Every structure is written in C-alpha cells, then in structure tokens.
UniProtKB/TrEMBL annotation:
Residues 162-382 form the Histidine kinase domain. Residues 382-430 are annotated as: Disordered. It catalyses: ATP + protein L-histidine = ADP + protein N-phospho-L-histidine. Residues 383-398 have a biased composition (Basic and acidic residues). This is Sensor-like histidine kinase SenX3. One of its GO terms (cellular component) is plasma membrane. It is an enzyme of class 2 (transferase).
Amino acid sequence: MDVNAAVAAAAAIAGVLTGVIAVLAFRWSEREQKRPTRSSLHTDAVLPPGVDTVLSVLRSSAVVLDEADAVVKASSAAYALGLVRGGKLAVEPMLQMARDTRRDGEIRQVELDLPRRGTGRGEALAVSARVAPLGSRLVLLLVEDLTEARRIEAVRRDFVANVSHELKTPVGALSLLSEAVMDASDDPEAVERFAGRMQIEATRLTSLVQELIDLSRVQNDDPLEDAEPVRVDELVAEAIDRCRHQAGAKQITMAAGGAADLRVWGNRGQLAAALGNLVENAVNYSPARTRVGIAARSVNAPGGDHIEIAVTDQGIGISDKDKERIFERFYRVDPARSRATGGTGLGLAIVKHVAASHGGEVTVWSAENQGSTFTLRLPEAGAARDRSHQQPARHERAGGAGLDEEAGRSTPTSPESTAYETLPAPEVLP
C-alpha cells in the first residue's frame, strides 16, 4: 500500500512539473513571436502602409533611412548607382541632408556629381537628390540620374551653336554682297561678279538647309516602315548620275563594278542619299584627272549575309586623328577646302545614321595623299526582311531633341577587303 502511494505521489509530482514546463514554454513562445526581429525592423513592417508599393513603381532610386541612419528600404537602382553599401548610405552629402531633414522636417533638394564606380575613367555621375520626412521616424531619399539628360543637353547646345554658325556665314555673305551690288549698280561687270558670288552662297545655304532636313528625317523616321528590296546597281547608277556634272568638270573618271543583281532591304530614298553623299565626297576631295570607283559585293557573316558597297578615291586622304571624328556633325577635315567645295559637314553624319538605322555600318580606310575607301555595309534583302518582321528596328536617338551623341568612331578597312581592286569589266562613265 505504501508503495502504491509513493508511485502515485511521484506521478502527481511529474505531472505538475510537466504542466509547469509546458506553460513556461508556451509563454516563452508567445514572447518570442511578439519580439521584433532584425529582419522585421528593415522590412515593410516599419514602413507606413502603401509606401513600399509606391517605392516599387518609382523610376527614381529610393532609399528609406531610420533615426539611426540605417537603411530600412532601398531599391535595386540605388544599389546599382552605388548609393547604398553595407546597409549604409554611402554618399556623405546625402546623409547630411537626411540628418538635417530629420531634425527640422524640411524638404531639401540638391544636384551632385558623383564618381562613377567601376569605369576607371573618372567620369562623373550627375544626380539630383531630394530628401523628405516619412512619418515621424523615417526619412525618404529619392535620387534621379541626370547623366543622360545632361549629355543630351550638351549635344543639343553644340548642335544649335554649329547650325547657327553655319547659317550665319552664307547669310552674312549674301547681305554684304547685296550691298556691294547696290553700290556697283553703274558697273555691269561688278554686278555680274557679285551676283555670281551671291548665287554660290545661296546654293550653299540651300544645301545646308536641305541636309539639316535630311539629317532630322533619318534620325526621327523608321526607315523600315516603308522598306522594300532595293537593287544595289540602281543605287550606284543614281549616285553616279548625281555627281556626273562635278566629275566632268574635274575630268574625274567614275567606274562602277562588282557583283551584279544584289539587293538590300530598306528605304530607297535614304539609301540613295547615303551612297550619293559618299560618292559626292569622293569627287569633291579628289584631284583632277583621277578616278572614283564604286563596287559592291556580297559577304557571308554569322548574323546573315551582308552587302558591302565600297567607294574608293585617289584624293588627299584622311589622317589618323581626323578619322576618329569624320562622322561627327559639321566636322571637316579641311575647313577651307570644304568651303571651296560647298561642303556642310553633315554628309557623313547622314551616312552614319542611315547605315545604323538599317542595321549596318559605315567604315573607312584612308592614308594621306593616297586616297580613301568608304565602305557601306548593309544586311542583304532576304535576311534583313526576315529580321524586320521579327523585331522592330532600333534607332540612334536621344530624347526629345532627336539628337544623339556623335562618337564618330570608325573601323579601319583596308582597300584589299573591298571589291574595288578586282572590278570585273567596270563601266567607265565620262
């Protein structure tokens, strides 16, 4: 009997202990669930309702800081710009702005130039930072990347300045010549001489305005909207016919050759203008009694067959330093010679844009006093047409101004890589 009582007492004591332990474990579990964890301090729980959703759709880089300057929330763009590192805001001026805003509650905004990470070229990253209080404890930092906008604005300013200068020259000349005509009204020979000069300046002004229109058109239009198969030999014949008068005046022989029955896919008008500009430059910058060759060939490439149209001259050539910039707007290798030939400095820029918008490129090989070879490389009609149906063409554009940065980089192409040296029975045109 005593043994049974002892066993019962022991079982009762064990039950009581088990109950106490269970109660303590339950209370401890509840306490742990209510305790804020480290992750909850830095997630949506501390943000006002709806803020996280708003931040996720903002185009600006967003960073939310708490009262200890720790990052509570940061967008992926903020990390990409290097604003946040190791859970801290890494830009001291922005951090100071956040502290000042937390102290007085005022909204602040500033533009900063930050070093660009990972480029090794010391380029600055232009940003606009705006800081505002978010509730009683948090501060919101919004950062907008202004680098591209500033680049576009610089290009626009340069373009407007160049256009203004180029327009001012012939307009000023016309004004002075008109005054000279009035003063020499009793001298028929002087009137005839001044009228001839006025005609030259008027022609130059007309060419400049037309090329500005052409450049604007090739930058803003989609050339593949009205694309069609274009015969290369027709483009070559049209370019030769365009320059026939200038070539005849300098006794320059123009030879056309290469493979026959080649076609490219694109806008006929833009392609004709691009090739015409190359041939016209070759004639204008070639000495008298030389020759200009235009040859076309098909080239196999991994991305699809291409057509290369090479324009070769025996002119003054281009130095290495000038080859880096010849595709920039208004850039001239020899400004004095360009004025004499009526060049505007826009022809090669138009060629570059036409080639790029058609999925091709233009390259140059040149040696001083030996001549130059410009090669227009375009996708062949079949492959280009298939790609145009699958994916829309991409343009070189830059914002609302319709302008882009002119890198002016060219890839050297030797004359041996073109078909000009092996023209099969070229057609010689006077």
